Batch of 2 targets.
Target 1
Amino acid sequence: MTDSKLYDLIIVGGGPAGLTAAIYAMRAALDTVLVEKGVHGGQVANSDTVENYPGFESISGFELSQKFSDHAKSYGVETLQNEVLAVEPGTDFHQVRLDDGQVLKAHAIIVAAGGSPRKLNIPGEDAYYGKGVSYCATCDGFFYKDKTVVVVGGGDAALEEALFLAKIAKQVYLAHRRDAFRGSRILQQRVFDECKIEVLWNTIVTKIKADEKGVNAVVLEDTKSHEERELATEGVFIFIGFEPNNALVPGGVAMNAQGYVITDEKCETRIPGLFVVGDLRQKYARQIVTAAGDGCIAALAAAHYVETKKSSTECAAPE
Ligand code: NAP
């Protein structure tokens, strides 16, 4: 790889959307490079069990992400482990700046940067991160064997991770700000059936307390009566959704009020040849399978875009 090389396609992000895009791009014979700053798999790699990806009744998130990565690599896609600092659209080509000073150029770019865990923004959350505060039960659950933990949230992630923690911890409190879960019915039923999980309805965590050994309590507030109480716990696992990683999205690309990128049905932004896929894109359902679907659509559309661009350049060339 040299700074002057012009790729057909750069893929930013190695989660299910980016890796699926790589598979389709390689099958379309696009000269492709995929850039990912961490391990391949994105958020899925941190999920305990995935039960809704077709073809796998139950598979660990890590194993599924490995399969995605191995599949993409089987086509020989070039991969770089770098942080992308900027995505810069141009007229003749687009480019991507990396943390080591490299500048990659390509006819088309697919941004699959996903999202990051949303924070509660309460006292103690940042200070005790890694000392009892966590956003990943699969990564940190092991440390809470026979201990008490509080899980915050009411979506699929909170329900799923509370169930995972119930296999390890002595007691799991699931604090949700409303009186009904947002997560799927099947997960709700499993939570209700799990005797180690106690649901704290209409409850928010307002403060995380700790001593020299780490987290030892949370302050809870009843959202109806506004009464406060303290609950002893050694861990706080926060699963309250995520924020789109839109820092790399260049100016001129439309986003909705929540910061998700608006694309057309080809996952193409207002800038020709710049595609956004997966959890960063405005859409109805953020699932592994929809991320993979986006990756497929964008890569096929990118292949058409690159082919058209190249053939028009060839036709315009003087004899
Ligand atoms: P989510 O569906 O957006 O749920 C976030 C939860 O956190 C909601 O219950 C919300 O409460 C609560 N919440 C948000 N902000 C809060 C705050 N400041 N304080 C307290 N609670 C707050 O997020 P998610 O569970 O991370 O899931 C994200 C997407 O991934 C969803 O589309 C989900 O279906 C998908 N996912 C799927 C699976 C699966 O299918 N197995 C697993 C994980 C994630 P309200 O309900 O009151 O808004």
Note: Residues 288-316 form the longest helix (29 residues).
Target 2
Amino acid sequence: MKVTDHIKNAKKTLFSLEVLPPLRDETIQNLFSHMDPLMEFKPPFVDVTYHREEFIYKRRENGLLERITVRKRPGTVGICAAIMNRYHVDTVPHIICGGFTKSETENALIDLDYLGVENVLVLRGDAIKSEPRFVPHEEGHPYALDLLQQVKSMNNGVYLDEEIESRTKTNFCVGVAGYPEKHMEAPNLKTDIYYLKKKVEAGADYVVTQMFFDNQKFFQFVEMCRAEGINVPIIPGMKPITTTSHLTVLPQIFHLDLPEALSKELLKCKNNKDARQVGIEWAIQQSKELMEYGVPCLHYYSMGKSYSVRKIAEALF
Ligand code: FAD
């Protein structure tokens, strides 16, 4: 079922999850052990992130270095099928521009369609470590908007090879990313929302936000989106803090602010266990307020940390 139909049919705030594919040398059991304790809270859909290639250098016998492309977390399409099979829930694979050709994307979307996956979240992806800024694949897409248009074209039976005769129409519900504290490359929030609107005008069915820790930022973002005529559901993305290092790492990586009240509590923590407890309590309070505001769904970036998300879910769902 589509995410938007889950939202339409819901009688209360939905609980959803985002998981990472296991590392290349791990088994899928690692992922299941993380998900098992969370499934009793009945997420109607589970997002599975997508990871682009990274480069490693291996020394050849002749002493020269060889650049090898690896994907540390492969398997998003297969994992979606495995999750649907094991838990009988819908999945939302993330599809990214970075590192993929349009043709590879089309093949992935055909696989997903065959598997009965009805949702995708389309994203641009970030720059890889060796690049100062995002560089699109020369046969790929520069922005999420372009990728979205490819998915929407397939929904209309238009494939890359215009000579394909039997034009099966896919039927994907398409989500896109939004940033309550603006995307790190955007000059300001208003400009970022301008581009978000372009994605919605091109057919995005819903928005999921980047994590944030100050609900006022989310409320302001939603109001600005509504004022610009973005009327699709906006789902808040929530990440419980689990370590003391998050105090500096999250602002650095995601370009967001931690409210002073939260940073003060984290500074008092003696160890990660204390920080995890602060993170759980903060996320519960944040989630309660968001529920009162009337968000359709609370989407938790569980990222292998099922303990915290379970505690939050026990308190709320
Ligand atoms: P876009 O919508 O393409 O926007 C990128 C930047 O360009 C923004 O600053 C925007 O304002 C600007 N912009 C957009 N369109 C135009 C245009 N036409 N002209 C000029 N400027 C434009 N990354 C992964 O690699 N894998 C994942 O699974 C993943 N999941 C995510 C899930 C969520 C909910 C979120 C919020 C992020 C996720 N990311 C993931 C990270 C995401 O890929 C990065 O934040 C990326 O830098 C931007 O992606 P986007 O889809 O928002 O890009």
Note: Residues 49-50, 52, 94, 96, 123-126, 143-145, 177, 183, 185-186, 192, 195, 208, 210, 237 surround flavin-adenine dinucleotide (CB under 6 Å).
